[in-house]
Amino acid sequence: MNNNTILSYPSIVCASHEPAESIRPFDSSSYHNYSSHSMTYAEYPLSTSKSETIEYTCWPTIPTHNILNNSSHTVLDQVSPPLSSHPTHDTLGSVSSVHLLQNTLPTTISSIQHHQPLYPQPSASPPSTWIGSGDYQALHSTAITTPPSYRHYSTPCSYYHPQYFYDQPPSQWISPASVKFEPSYTPPPSYIESSESLSHCREQTSKEEACESRQQSTWTKKDISPTHLNPVPPRNLLNGNQLTFRSKTRTRDKYRIVYTDQQRYELENEFIISKYISIPRKSALSLTLSLSERQIKIWFQNRRAKERKLNKKRHGPSSSNQLNNSNDADSRSDGGLESPNCYPNYT
DNA sequence: TTGTGTTTTACGACCTCC
DNA sequence: GGAGGTCGTAAAACACAA
């Protein structure tokens, strides 16, 4: 791997609902895997796993950017906001101005402060198909090397701190430098897919989703390598080629796919906003992330399970109901452990 | 390089709700 | 009956130690 040219989407780590002060500064100058940082997950006294380490280090406690709030690609729910007094994606949508900046400068990442451009783009030809035609972009410019072994959940990333999503980059950011792209670099494809693709998604029924999911299951890791940065899996590659693997609904070729950092980032953002995704939000995310609604539903289910598991580890098995203690805006939804029935508009 | 442990997708079973 | 919930689990993907 060409280590002076690789750009990557922000690392996706587990969402934390810790108080803001729990976000710890990260002092390593390395962008390599967590073992090469000055402080590894094992060194965090409260951490019991890699993912927990990330929770303490870098995940924002309030919703920051969310693709569905992008002004140039507004996806509006047609339902009233939940009655919860806490902000949710719906309630935040109308007021949130948090989004990434438009930038015509070369996009780079600070290897010191772990700022990664959300959607890095070559300075020469920003892809016009990006959502908002460039509304997403790096917040600042620095030199970058992305380690070949870096893993999404293990990269401490202050980039996720809310301040890095606001309109003014922190003054402490280091001076810009040019970024180099591999010749093979491919800009992220548009979130707004072709009409054909979108109509396909819209027409999906729940049963059809399974079919789509199976088709996506043939998407191999090669397709989403960091070099390619392609968050949109190819579709319809194996029509009718579903084979019995272990269960009837898994392909022989691929047991599961790996979501791109971009997809995971958006899903995590949505999860921070609400542990239970509404149907309109699910539909919107399905379109924007090129995932089936079933995949998004299952992702949220798995994410809630992960949250419960982490909270169990952290607080003990008997404290699974103490998750409302966190004081962030989302604590009402309680790590996914509050019944979705509390949301009148859930369905 | 290999073995091991962890995390991530995806599913089935079973449940509740409408 | 269909939706989505949790729970448990399989297997791929991944990190890391030896």
- How many individual β-strands? 0
Question: What fold name stands as the CATH topology of the domain at 276-313?
Answer: Arc Repressor Mutant, subunit A
Overall structural class, as computed from helix and strand content, comes to: mainly alpha
| Structure annotation, total helices | 7
Largest sheet: none
**Spans of at least 5 consecutive residues with low confidence:** 1-64, 70-252, 319-347
Query: Would you state the CATH class of the domain at 276-313?
Result: Mainly Alpha
Form type: globular
- Classify the helix fraction into a percent range: 10-25%
Pfam family, one: Homeodomain
Biased composition (Polar residues): 317-328
Keywords: DNA-binding, Homeobox, Nucleus
Protein name: Homeobox domain-containing protein
Structure notes:
The chain has about 350 residues and is mostly helical. The protein has a domain at about 275-315: Orthogonal Bundle (Arc Repressor Mutant, subunit A), CATH 1.10.10.60. Helices cover about 25% and strands about 0% of the residues. The protein has helices at about 50-55, 90-95, 195-200, 205-215, 260-275, 280-290, 295-315. The longest helix has 23 residues, at about 295-315. The radius of gyration is 20 Å and the shape is globular.
